[in-house]
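Need tokens for this chain, all 207 residues.
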Amino acid sequence: MNGYSLFAYKRGNSFLHRCPAWAKIVFIPIVNILFLCLPPMFSVVLMVMQIFLAFLLGFSLREQLSDLRPVFFYAILVAFVQLVGFVAGGFPSGYFSWESEKDTVLFLVKLFAIMQSASLVFKTSTSLELREGIGKLFGQNSDFTNAIAMFLNFIPMVGIVWQQSKRAWFARGGKQNVKMYVTLLPVLFSVGMKKAYNAARAVSVRR
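Here are the structure tokens for all 207 residues:
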């Protein structure tokens, strides 16, 4: 698990692994849009179903939570902003009532379900499968296909670069603190930009 990175592909032979990538690319966004438009309870049902599905596919709880960290960070940010508003407003009564926070909580539930769906796609599809799936939908070697494919592949690549940077940091005796993020975030940006540039050049050469 020390080598696990955000939205990383995990080898397997499940029905979802064998499902064509183009079908997952089409079906999962449609499901998400549908559940966003339906009452919040449907998002809760989808969230629970996807948790059980992930367990059936062999994904541990830690792996599932790792891909959902952005939602947790966003929730912390929202809570911090709410706290600042509470203090700045002079501690008004009823500020944290359910009625005032209901929309935020329901939005986080829907966002949680959407991130679960994206995680299932990336966990069960290799970069090549995603590229070929997009090509079947929009045509091979078109500018739009290349742009979408590179964007989708860039997401897990960022996770891999960040995980490698953290391992190198800890191997040199570094601690997980504010200094680590201050030091590694510029490295993540620099290495990520270099990889994106090399990928763009490789695509242009093959055209």
